[in-house]
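Could someone model heme C with this protein?
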Amino acid sequence: MVGMSSLIFMLSVWLVGAFLVGSTLVAQEAKGSAEAPEAEVEQAYTMRCVACHGADGNSQLPDMSFTDGVWKHGSSEEDIAKIITEGVPGTAMMPFEAQLSPEEIQALAKYVRQFDPKLRGAEKPKG
Ligand code: HEC
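Reply:
Sure, complex below.
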């Protein structure tokens, strides 16, 4: 027969175990979503944007080009993230809010800015 005290002991072991496993999972989750790594951003761009914007963001249509130095809706990371989130009503540029996390959208905004030689910045001159 199992005594009351050993039942309580087993229950508390189980509870501590469940707590430890739970908090480890939460910690991993938080780490994973901190910032999307480069490869993931590239993959997201290839999957969702390339068809319209071109492999190097060099679409022949000016409104869709990321390389011509013209950013119709603003060139800051914030402006671009907003466009990706909300889309441009009345155009083929649809909102990606439902498909991408805010972190992914932020990473994509950074990524597409890099296609513009002017925004790529002075710290990385073309050689
Ligand atoms: C179905 C075609 C299509 C897809 C897919 C698409 N876009 Fe667009 N995008 C457009 C069009 C068309 C415009 C131009 C809208 C306009 O006339 O202002 C545009 C505009 C933009 C702009 C604004 C450019 C500027 O000059 O201000 C950004 C930024 C952008 N897209 C990012 C993205 C990203 C990132 C993705 C992938 C997550 C994506 N787009 C997917 C068609 C598309």
